[in-house]
Amino acid sequence: KVGLAGYEDKFPWELSGGMQQRASICRALIHEPKMLLLDEPFSALDAFTREELWCILRDLWTEQGVNVVLVTHDLRESVFLADTVYVMSKRPGRFVLKREIDLPRPRDLELTYTKEFSDIVHELRGHIGAIRQQPGQQPGQPAAKVPA
Q: pLDDT truncated to tens, each residue of the chain (148 aa)?
């Protein structure tokens, strides 16, 4: 299901970064968890491998129904994979925006080229830009809430 057939006898260092991520996802899912926490799982991968793994994660999520918390700095990734995106402030990290992603499921990569998808990505980017531009915010102070 994750594209590792034929690599069973390989050592981890013999696998590409994408194959290593696939193996990591398999290890995480082997015990059928109710929740999966993924912290920047695709950030070190090339664009094509990253998008391929988005689809693998989407399919596994659909089949297994596991709850996924995905930490990412990639807005396209968050909009493609998530039902809800939370934007965090700079230090200290606080949730300052909650955005429901109301795009239809199942989502395929063609969706990422639509106006609706791009509009959501640009909306989130605008909120993040506003958070970063807040005047007078000192390091260590909580960020002001951004309207949804």
A: 666 777 777 887 888 787 787 788 778 878 888 999 999 988 888 899 899 889 988 998 888 888 999 999 999 999 999 999 999 988 788 899 999 999 999 999 999 999 999 999 999 999 999 888 876 555 445 555 555 5
pTM for this prediction: 0.79
φ, ψ (nearest 5 deg) of residue 38:
-120, 120
Q: What angle, 0 to 180 degrees and rounded to 10, lies between the N-to-C axes of helices 47-64 and 17-29?
A: 10
Alpha helices in the chain (DSSP H): 17-29, 47-64, 75-81, 115-132
Alpha-carbon torsion (108, 48, 17, 125), positive or negative: negative
What tokens appear for 96 in the block?
A: 């300052």
Cβ(133)–Cβ(125) below 8 Å? no
Distance CA 134, CA 127 (A): 11
Rounded to whole angstroms, the Cα distance separating 36 from 63 reads 14
- Give CA–CA dist 3/111, Å, rounded: 23
